[in-house]
Hints:
It contains no helices and 12 strands. By secondary structure, the protein is an all-beta fold.
Amino acid sequence: xxxxxxxxxxxxxxxxxxxxxxxxxxxxxxxxxxxxxxxxxxxxxxxxxxxxxxxxxxxxxxxxxxxxxxxxxxxxxxxxxxxxxxxxxxxxxxxxxxxxxxxxxxxxxxxxxxxxxxxxxxxxxxxxxxxxxxxxxxxxxxxxxxxxxxx
Length: 151
């Protein structure tokens, strides 16, 4: 399993390995692919969004308001069509870029980006988190859902 420790200010692709990013609030985050050992029993706070559609080169921003005492976040971007490619870039409320994630982040191409975001210590930063979905390579339009869970 690839694990990335994410920090702010660095705009870069995250596909595997380990990266350290320090958010502007001084908090480090560990981003890892979701696995069966992490059950999705958190509270969905950002839908699942009503069905969204995206086309080649289009960017759609989604926001999730995170309150106090959240231990970790789970982000699930699911479009299911492996012939199209989407990416997911995550920003903390203070504007830190935790990285851009692609379908192969978990080691398989399955039309899904499903990740966990942990603070290295303490709780997830409170405020409005931004999840940017980008149509990397899309033929026509692609339907997708994005669900953000707080645990």
